[in-house]
Amino acid sequence: MTQTPAPVLRLRGPSQARTQRPATRDFRWPAVVAAVYTIVQLALAVPGTGLGWDETVYVSQVTPGADAAFFSAPRARGITLLIAPLTAFTSSVEALRVYLALLSGAGLFLALWVWKRLLPASVLAVAGALFAGLWITVFYGPQAMPNLWVALGALFTVGCFLRAARDPSDGTALIGLGAGVAFVALMRPTDAFWLAAPLAAVALCVRVWRHPVLLLVLAAGAAVGCAPWVVEAYVSYDGLLARLRRASEIQGHLGPHFAVDDQVRSLDGRSLCRPCDVPWKRPVTALWWFVLPLFVAGGCAAAMRTRRPSGILVPALTGLSLAVPYLLLIDYAAPRFLLPAYALLALPAALCLTRIAAYARPRPLVAVALALLLAGHLAIQYSVLDGAVSRNRANRLAFDRIAAELRLQGMRPPCAISGAEAIRIAFFTGCASRRTGGHDGSITPAGLVALARDRPVAFVVTGESRPPSYARGWRLTRLPDLPGHHNSRAYLAPTVRPAATPGAGPGRD
């Protein structure tokens, strides 16, 4: 009698079987998470929203016909390269939002996909849902800001690192590792350091992972990604050290600063908390932030009981590393700063949740409790999201009204705007922004006066502020109030002549 051979998987050793099993898991649920994330952005965070202050700086660099806003020392060109293929064809904010929403959904799918040989699909789906369910992740998905892309790049990079560490002959993983580090460095060079440093340390400390190729790929990827920033430092800032010093100065002089409490207060919907001396009005919005370390610790403890805990411990370590500069080295906060940490810490948190759901008893009661907790968490997150999006829409309407009034008063290209909110007002009016001081100072007062002799120039002030002496004799016009300000007005140079027809002159979508 012919004997039927046993399935191949049964002939493998125990460790090999465990290695193969995650790769065969159904990956549909992580794909569904990425798709839902995209749909939620398109439905809630895209319609009617306008460009923020930082976004305007980035977008102005690659919008044809726009005068590029001053690009300060800490900024990197990665996000401008990401949006350049779209802005080359249209300046529509709506088109930019849709483009980035689709791209970020695809990016989340790719970042989870590289982990399919490392962790079960159920853990990846829960991790993706935990990360994508945060209001910060939804709000910044369609925005031209680098932090979410650092988060997705970091998640992708750590997955590739683990695959390459376990199998140095995996050329695809090595290429992904180098490309991931380069991508993060292109977005934010300093974040690339906090990403690569723990990975290099792990590669050196774990004896079976001491493959020189890992360190070479990490170093090469970081060097390639940082190269444009370094070259620009020598072209525009008198060298790398000078740019680093200037970047530190703009960020409040990097050094020991305890910003944990600042980050907590910023979770109620603030895009920037600087200085963060505001009251903590809605503590409920930060409940998840205090629970997260418990789930991360639980996930790490669960991973230690498996044969390969590195799939959880390495992302946990790297996530903590990426949080260090924003919790301990700067004296202000923005919730988007910690997105890279949240993306990686979602993996151990997800493992903890899936273990609780699988093994806690009684299972029906545990399932109901987890469902209620998740529903409450999402309700809070989307309440905060609604407030943030509503403020953004109100800001867009305000800047549209201001730009329309300035065009009516005669601000037509080539023109320049200085003073309060000069960058956004100038971009939407079709003018150049020229600040005479601060971190974005790009012209001297004498230079602005000289500029006003041959083109329309406006100086915007709000509240009780007074214009500089050289603008006090210029024509005064009242403006619709700027967001968060009152008594907004513009002083128009003698070269500014009112438009012949209402609304005349080009502006931005």
Give a written overview of the molecule:
The protein is mainly alpha-helical. Helices cover 59% and strands 4% of the residues. It contains 20 helices and five strands. The protein has a five-stranded mixed β-sheet with strand order 2-1-3-5-4, with helices on one face. Helix 19 (422-429) links the parallel strand 1 and strand 2. Helix 10 (171-187) runs antiparallel to helix 11.
Concise account of the structure shown:
This protein has 509 residues and is mainly alpha-helical.
Fold topology:
Blueprint: H1 8-11, H2 14-20, H3 28-45, H4 53-61, H5 78-87, H6 93-113, H7 121-132, H8 135-140, H9 147-166, H10 171-187, H11 189-205, H12 212-236, H13 240-250, H14 260-266, H15 287-303, H16 310-328, H17 339-359, H18 363-408, E1 416-419, H19 422-429, E2 432-433, H20 445-451, E3 457-461, E4 475-478, E5 489-492
Parallel strand pairs: 1-2, 1-3
Antiparallel strand pairs: 3-5, 4-5
Order of helices and strands: HHHHHHHHHHHHHHHHHHEHEHEEE
Number of DSSP strand runs? 5
Question: What's the shape?
Answer: globular
Category by helix and strand content: mainly alpha
β-strand amount? under 5%
The low-confidence parts are 1-24, 502-506
Count of distinct structural domains: 2
Strand order of the largest sheet: 2-1-3-5-4
State the helical fraction: 55-70%
Total DSSP helices:
20
Overall pLDDT metric: 91
Query: How large is the radius of gyration?
Result: 26 Å
Largest beta-sheet characterization: 5 strands, mixed
Measured distance between first and last alpha carbons: 78 Å
